[in-house]
Structures are given as structure tokens and as C-alpha cells.
Amino acid sequence: MRIGLYPGTFDPITMGHIDIIRRASALVDRLVIGVAINRDKGPLFSLEERVAMIEAECVSLTEQTGIEIIAHPFENLLIDCARDVDASLIIRGLRAVADFEYEFQMVGMNRALDDSIETVFLMAEARHQAIASKLVKEIARLNGDVSKFVTAPVRDALVARFRNTK
User: Fold this and answer.
1) What is the CATH classification number for the domain harbouring 93?
2) Domains of the chain: total
3) Triad 146, 149, 5: Cα angle to 5°
4) Is residue 150 part of a domain?
């Protein structure tokens, strides 16, 4: 069984993430969405909320693709998380050249730690390349319309979160 790991903070999950998840599903038999705890980033949504959003968004993707898609929180090294879930592939989404420079370094380090786990890069579709969770949160915080960047349930969660923090 080919297992892929798509890691990130997903704070929140965006249409760009969903695009990568859908396309990664064609490459594997099981896709694990590694939800990074990453306390240093100070996420807007708790780990439990982010996992719940991912699980809700992936129900229809699992139905469409027939591929098992699960959320898996992690706080250890990415390569250790890949080992924990028996992943042979790490899937990374790229939006721009700046992403590639960072990811190139990460691949080198991960290969040094375990050269049996491959990294596969998927480019976000053109209409999703500008989407970044950080920017989506900023737009929502300033009462902008984020409906082009996230699904309706995620948009509603963002609106509610910023309404409650004012």
C-alpha cells in the first residue's frame, strides 16, 4: 500500500490545500494529512478545530476518490511523522519560487535523515497559487470576503472567530 503524507498547519485549510489533497489522492492508496501542532506559529484555530475542519472537508474527497484520507496531528520531526504513519511519500504543495527554495532545503535534510522516503511536489493550480492561510486570516480579520479562498464552513468559522475576538 502506498501511503502519502501531506503535512502543514492548515490554519485554516484553504481551497489550495484541498486542490493538493485531491490531486495527491491520485498518487497514493491512503493519504494522511499531517496537522502540525507548531506552537511557535500561534495558530488562530486549535489543533482540534483544524483537525475537525480537515476531516469535514475530506469526507467528500474520500467519496469522490475512493482513497482513505485521514488527519493525523504531529509535533515531532516530519520524517518521524512519515515513519509513524508508514508513509513512503511526503507530498508538498508549491505556490511560488520562494516556496521551492525552502522546500529544496527541507528535502535535502529529510533525505539525509531517511533516504527511503521520497518527497513529491505538486504545484497549486493557477487559480489557487496566491492563496495562503496567513493572507486568508488577514482578509477575514478585516471583514473581507474570503469565499473565493475557503469553503463555506471554513469561512463561517473564520467569521465567527474574528467576531468573538473583537
Assistant:
1) 3.40.50.620
2) 1
3) 140
4) no
